[in-house]
Amino acid sequence: MEELREAVINGIDEHTEALNEISQEIWKNPELAFEEHSAHNVLTDFLEKSGFIVESQYKLKTAFRATYGECDTVPRKPHIVVICEYDALPSIGHACGHNLIAEVGIAAGLGIRDALAKSTENLGKLTILGTPAEEGGGGKIELIDQGVFDDVDVAMMAHPTPATYHKKPLLARSKLYIKYKGKASHAAGFPWEGVNALDAAVLCYQNISCLRQQFKPTWRVHGVIINGGVKPNIIPDITELEYSIRAPTDPERKILETKIISCIESAATATGCSVEYHTADKTYNAMIHNDTLCKLYEKNAISVGVEFTNDEEDKTIALGSSDMGNVSTVVPSIHPCFHMGTLAANHTRDFTTAAGAPEAQPFTLNQGKSLALTALDIYLQPKLLETIQADFEKDKKKLTIMV
Ligand SMILES: [Zn+2]
Ligand SMILES: [Zn+2]
């Protein structure tokens, strides 16, 4: 046991330079959802050279699957998936630090690979899964739909944030696209001939803002006007908005969505505009943190020197949403958050800078070790999967009752 733990730690420590280079390469070339071609190539090239069986462009153009070891034996052995993300944000680059998520995934993969190789018996299978488009595109949802998680026992990843928590809430999220149609006219010469679609968009925004007083503290609704008209002297005939709607559970999200739709429709009535709206086809589920997995991860993280943030209030504030939430509804999963040297918030320019700084490296490598050691615990004690599965079934039942 101790020998294999050492193999994990050494397997990561021996590659600190290469791991840093990988995340630097991704950080310097930020690519948007489903366009992460350079990141995909950097990661798959490295994994091929590292002895993994690599399937490039796996199911999606910028997804990949890299495997090591075997699970379909008698008795069946555990199959563990470590997830990489590598998409960036428009205009602010790697402001969510997904270059570091990729690095954690590869680091964990190297550590696990070395432990599996060192073991005298077959311990099981490791998959490193490259999942594109977490920022809105829901790449993992497409991979789930294509059966990628069907034979998986456990999935894990780690995400950089200002603080370190083993289970920070991730909210269920839907997106609404709204389009108001009015009638264009000369804004000074013949304003009475027009129907102002910008007024409808502004009222919609304000209706939702007024409703905020009645929001539960855990609800989040935020939007932008993506088309607000063309010229001041033309009464806008078309305006468009995009909104995200988030709540801790799916049923609660649906209640909130109904309230938001009333705000949208009443703005149309007040201005005489017509309105069309639709939800995005991919809804993110709330994250179910598997209790047994979380405890294993916490123990291992502490053993390699990870310090968890001791802020009870902050612990309950949601990080946002992720398609990892959808993964957590099909296989037992964890999504710990880790401090990487900055107190700046995700999706800020300061966070982008920190995600590319050398200070982030020790924190990132420690997460790779924490995930790999957690996987090792499961490979060495496959009976743990029974408790992990029991937690999963219990959590799923709770969700069904709530629906
Ligand atoms: Zn993000
Ligand atoms: Zn993120």
TrEMBL record:
CDD domains: M20_ACY1L2-like (cd05672). Residues 178-268 form the Peptidase M20 dimerisation domain. One of its GO terms (molecular function) is dipeptidase activity. Pfam families: M20_dimer, Peptidase_M20. It comes from the Eukaryota. NCBIfam families: amidohydrolases (TIGR01891). Belongs to the peptidase M20A family. This is Peptidase M20 domain-containing protein 2. It comes from Lottia gigantea (Giant owl limpet).
